């Protein structure tokens, strides 16, 4: 919007959004806000404003966040070199401490603060709180990287019922109290499934699923779970998009109605997805 956007035009935009507001009011939407989509502070503020606006019109928003770049930056400043196997961070005990400091400390509280100054009411959680995310070791080569075994959503539901926006950092724990580093996309899929969410929005740093990875105009607006498997066989879905799409499929298998992968760097992409005909990114459906 600019200075030449009239009040009548603003009113028309709001009127056109009414059916979508009606559709989502009272429904749960989980937003996964990923590390590479979080690097710009101005954009981060705008995303939090969009989340608050969605919350103000009655959508039950749950924000699940990663923070890979922040973890790697803190590791480097502490003289520790990040290591990865198959895209997952090798996590020894010292790295796990750093993960908790970066994710559950700095990133989580900065997002809660932005929600508050934007007019919302956010509460920060980690997957350890109320045993929200239960896990076991995923692979001994990865150290303290966890495989999710259960999600206990009581604390999230309590916060939603009281009108808060839960903001969840993705660490988990086992029954003995050991703490694990959990992949953010996987955690979002499991949490959205356990909540029976209307939609899971996966915000990343690409437009969605592209038929040609070098051509942004080749965006595929919607695919089914079966088509996703076929596109993976064809090599259209490859590299870092493979685990992301697998998380989308997992979320749908666990009861989420649909999942959208979209570019979190595009201004107001959440509002475009929830409140317009066109939407944003690629929608994965059953």
Reported for the largest beta sheet, the result is: 8 strands, mixed
Our Rg estimate from Cα atoms comes to: 19 Å
The low-confidence parts are none
User: Helical residue percent?
Assistant: 40-55%
What's the architecture in CATH terms?
A: 3-Layer(aba) Sandwich
**Terminal CA distance:** 36 Å
Q: H/E order of the elements?
A: HEHEHEEHEEEHEEEHEEHHEHE
- Structural class, from secondary structure content? alpha/beta
Shape: globular
The amount of beta strand, in percent, is 15-25%
Number of self-contained structural domains: 1
The count of β-strands is: 14
Can you tell me the CATH class? Alpha Beta
Strand order of the largest sheet: 5-8-2-1-11-13-14-12
Number of helical stretches of at least 4 residues: 9
Classify the fold: give the CATH topology: Carbamate kinase
Mean pLDDT: 90
CATH-assigned homologous superfamily: Acetylglutamate kinase-like
Question: Would you write up a description of this structure?
Answer:
There is one protein chain. It contains nine helices and 14 strands. The strands form four sheets. The protein has an eight-stranded mixed sheet, with helices on both faces. The chain has a two-stranded antiparallel sheet with strand order 3-4. It has helices at 7-24, 41-56, 68-77, 93-117, 154-161, 184-195, 225-233, 241-253, 269-275; strands spanning 28-33, 60-65, 84-85, 88-89, 122-126, 133-137, 146-151, 165-169, 171-173, 179-181, 199-204, 222-224, 258-263, 282-285. The protein has 286 residues and is α/β, with parallel strands linked by helices. It has a single domain (24-285), classed as Acetylglutamate kinase-like (Carbamate kinase). It starts with 6 loop residues before the first helix and ends with a strand. Helix content is 41%, strand content 22%.
